[in-house]
């Protein structure tokens, strides 16, 4: 072993080290050979241990093999040299890896102090650069180990996370991605706290005009996917008159030229207040009008700031739900004016975009979202948290008011029990847990996508009379395609990015191509009596797909509609159409003689007053899911539940019995029932 290594052997060692580290390695041949000469033979095992002083002792035993040499004279003295060199290299690499794992405090640039510290660790000057590099590239150790140093204590050494590619300490799978996924699964899963979704900074948001163009593109794609041609654009004066009727205030033609113009128009305090009042009437189903004037004024003042300025609506609504806001009791009273169950239905629609009308009695049959137990858990939470008396909410319990369970009855008569709370699947940020009180629920409302969907669809209903994407059980739900879903997502994303700016969303909806469509000729008041049924059906189809404007109808009470239907049973279709036209003329005369008290009343008086055409024939039920129900009485009951009504009014049942006696078809009976009772 006293013979010097040949140049070829030295070159081979350098090549192996360069391949291992990806860069030219330092010359460690002398250190390796010296370590090899000083290491005694210990059999066929290779072990390493730490001495009491902390230095590394490597014990190597080489398996003696017969080697073939180029020169026979060198066979005796060099037959074991290659194997010893290989084992020496392995021992040196093992030493360097161990030293690299423990030297996490070494800086990226080697200084004189670093060199001294490396010498104190037992290394040699020639080994310092390699050890220094490994200290920053090795990530196999999860907990850094401080190397023994008389000058540096464990507390003084800053433990920095190691960087680089970790060493494979165990057998790896064939696919490296499987190892990565396994490492992810081994990490402890901690449920993230519920936080508000961050909104985009105002300077980074898309311009409202650009978003309006994208929405129009989605609308035209939607009509193309249905294979329909949208109705022609209406005159600007007609559009302004229609929007004025919706908002109850005079809207100039300049305000509807673009989304930017309408958003500036909403900045006026009186206009923002009018929009807030219309929105409040829509989401409370008219319950807002039944509040006392003082409560109305206070509630409107706070909501108007969400339309006239950039006050985030989600924060305002969360304060109402939690009971902390000054108008919280007014908000609850407006929604619970007719009971806890209507309160649950309205809250679920606006805040989570969930239709609970059917799941009150049974699990959702058509849609997968919603079960009877989820409904009763939600209704039970509201019933225990809201103290209501004489159609007025007296107090709201922010924290959990009671731990009592909720019992409800299934369709087959069984009694089931559920814990009160907002179901986890109804709102984002819940994980696998339900919101157990109003405070938790209000926190999850902040910035939620479900709230944004509820607001977008409620505001679309405010302008166009029905949601953009309603429940499949609705009779007026538009045909769904991916383009319609993209349109809804675009509005929802923009509402979240703008921090729930209601004025911006309302301006986008008003500026859509749907708002600019005209009423189909076959559905106009002066043409409907002379139009064929095919033209009327085509016009209704365009209206149903938001490709045409719906004609304005006079709002008749149920009693007047039932009276008209009772007279029309058994008469000819021509007589029904003539009587419908006659009734419309009578209403027009009555309204014209009525003194207008507001700009909205004046607009209504100038418009052509018509009533919705009484169905004369039908070949299919109003909605196909009614075919799942066997009895006609149950089908009529389910139509009433959609209004929603607790039960069918007695005069309506009398008209149904009369139509059955006249042997009218079942689809026609159902269409006429809906004509009588729908809101």
UniProtKB/TrEMBL annotation:
Chain segments carrying region Disordered: 107-126
Compositionally biased residues, Polar residues: 107-119
Name under which the protein is recorded: DUF1549 domain-containing protein
Organism: Novipirellula rosea
Lineage of origin: Bacteria, Pseudomonadati, Planctomycetota, Planctomycetia, Pirellulales
